[in-house]
């Protein structure tokens, strides 16, 4: 695995399109060609795979390796080569980098900045901390379940300043038992699906259910990162909270975050960290699409606060069948991507769907 020949590539890409989110580089995830194509491309010490999860290329390699190892079991997802739900996390991680959210928010170091190591993930970054739970933990589980070969052992490096993060499967299973159990169940379910007599649409729904159970367990465990939010502006903290809240809605629809779908949903995400005074939909240096996305996220969070979680509970209750989950995915797509979609319509449709459960 090679380091980028131009360390400022991402910053240059971001600058070329103002603050629009940068998701792809030549049609692939950011710096994809620089990541590990096989596990042995990662650092190895004493026959133990020893990557540095605070290096962007190593973390992005986790996603490339997990996708490659699980693709043979993803036949029910579709006929395309990019139908795995793991593409959502992969492309999201690239956006977190290009938007500057992996850099040190305290300003105490140059980690992640153009003036420092652009591939550095700051242990002080809330976004980097949350991503740890949806990259390192599923990677360690995949290794434990034999997806990288029998007997492959992994121990993450723990550079100075990264205390409190688990580094081995056993360590993570001790500290985050529920999370690791659900990622294990996802990988075991993938293997079992190849011999399942169920039709592909039911197998797909079941696999996506296991995937989102694990994904959300990781995000819930990432509440351990909350203290790191104190380094960000109130608008950024509110956005981060809304971003987490949106996952609650996506998860219960068993949303299939394919490569193409993920690009569509991530492109209107804010291309920079929010600052004091930023108030959507009137942030002048952001596109109408970015302003719309931020407005929708804020609205969803406000509804949850005002109604005491009633909307989310109702939404969960309506996602009671494969058909309703399909409708739910269509509704979320309209809400997030169609700037003319009436938010009041969203609430009325939820109420109507609840009667069918």
Shape: globular
Query: What string gives the helices and strands in order?
Result: HEEEEHHHHHHHHHHHHH
User: Count the strands?
Assistant: 4
The biggest beta sheet is recorded as: 2 strands, antiparallel
Q: Approximately what portion of the residues adopt beta-strand conformation? A: under 5%
Strand order of the largest sheet: 1-2
Poorly predicted tracts of residues:
4-18
Q: Please, how many helices? A: 14
Distance between the termini: 51 Å
Structural class: mainly alpha
Helix content: 40-55%
Mean pLDDT: 90
- Computed over alpha carbons, the radius of gyration is 20 Å
Could you explain the architecture of this structure?
The protein has 357 residues and is an all-alpha fold. The protein has 14 helices and four strands. The radius of gyration is 20 Å and the shape is globular. The N and C termini lie far apart (51 Å). 43% of the residues are buried.
List keywords for this structure.
about 350 residues, mainly alpha, two-stranded antiparallel ribbon, 14 helices, globular
SSE blueprint:
Elements: H1 9-16, E1 24-25, E2 28-29, E3 44-45, E4 48-49, H2 56-70, H3 86-98, H4 126-133, H5 136-144, H6 169-175, H7 177-193, H8 200-221, H9 234-251, H10 259-266, H11 288-306, H12 310-318, H13 322-337, H14 343-354
Antiparallel strand pairs: 1-2, 3-4
């Amino acid at each position: 695995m090679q380091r980028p020949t131009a360390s400022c590539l991402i910053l240059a890409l971001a600058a070329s399109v103002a603050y629009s989110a940068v998701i792809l580089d030549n049609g692939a995830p950011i710096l994809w060609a620089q990541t590990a194509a096989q596990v042995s491309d990662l650092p190895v010490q004493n026959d133990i795979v020893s990557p540095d999860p605070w290096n962007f290329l190593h973390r992005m390699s986790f996603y490339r390796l997990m996708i490659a190892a699980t693709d043979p079991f993803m036949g029910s997802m579709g006929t395309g080569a990019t139908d795995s739900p793991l593409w959502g996390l992969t492309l999201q991680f690239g956006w977190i980098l290009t938007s500057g959210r992996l850099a040190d928010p305290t300003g105490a170091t140059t980690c992640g900045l153009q003036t420092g190591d652009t591939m550095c993930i700051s242990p002080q970054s809330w976004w980097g901390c949350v991503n740890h739970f949806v990259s390192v933990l599923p990677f360690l589980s995949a290794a434990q379940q034999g997806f990288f070969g029998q007997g492959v052992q992994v121990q993450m490096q723990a550079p100075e300043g990264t205390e409190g993060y688990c580094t081995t499967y056993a360590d993570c299973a001790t500290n985050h038992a529920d999370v690791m159990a659900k990622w294990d169940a996802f990988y075991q379910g993938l293997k079992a699906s190849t011999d399942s007599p169920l039709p592909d649409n039911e197998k797909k729904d079941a696999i996506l259910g296991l995937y989102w159970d694990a994904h959300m367990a990781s995000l819930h465990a990432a509440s351990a990162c909350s203290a790191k939010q104190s380094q960000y502006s109130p608008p950024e903290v509110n956005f981060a909270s809304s971003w987490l809240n949106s996952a609650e809605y996506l998860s219960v629809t068993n949303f299939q975050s394919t490569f193409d779908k993920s690009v569509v949903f991530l492109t209107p995400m804010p291309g920079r960290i929010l600052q004091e005074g930023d108030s959507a939909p009137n942030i002048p240096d952001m596109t109408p699409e970015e302003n719309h996305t931020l407005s929708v996220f804020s609205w969803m969070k406000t509804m949850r606060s005002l109604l005491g979680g009633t909307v989310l509970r109702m939404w969960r209750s309506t996602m009671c069948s494969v058909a309703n989950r399909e409708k739910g995915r269509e509704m979320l797509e309209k809400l997030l991507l169609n700037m003319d979609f009436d938010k009041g319509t969203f609430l009325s449709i939820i109420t109507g769907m609840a009667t069918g459960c």
